[in-house]
Amino acid sequence: MSIPVVTVGDSRDDLVGGLERLHGPVSVVRRCSELAELLAACQSGLARAAVVAAGSEDLTASLVDRLSAVGVVVIALTDNPEETSRLQTIGVAAEAHGVEAAALAARISAAVARLSGPAGRAGPAAEGSPRGVHVGGSAGGSGPGHAADPGHAQRASGGHASAARGPTGKGRLIAVWGPAGAPGRTLVAANIAGELAAEGQSVLLVDADSYGASVAALLGLLDEAAGLAQACRLADQGLLDADALLRIATPVATKAGTFRVLTGITRADRWTELRAAALTLVLERAREVADVTVVDTGFCLEADEELSFDTGAPRRNAATLKSLELADTVFAVGTADSIGVPRLVRGLAELQAAVPHAAPRVVLNKVRAAAVGRSPERQLRAAWERYGPAATLSAFLPSDPAASDAALLSGTLLLESAPESELRRAIATLVCAPAQRNTKSIVFSSTARRLSKG
Ligand SMILES: Nc1ncnc2c1ncn2[C@@H]1O[C@H](COP(=O)(O)OP(=O)(O)O)[C@@H](O)[C@H]1O
Ligand SMILES: [Mg+2]
Question: pTM to 2 decimals?
Answer without folding.
Answer: 0.83
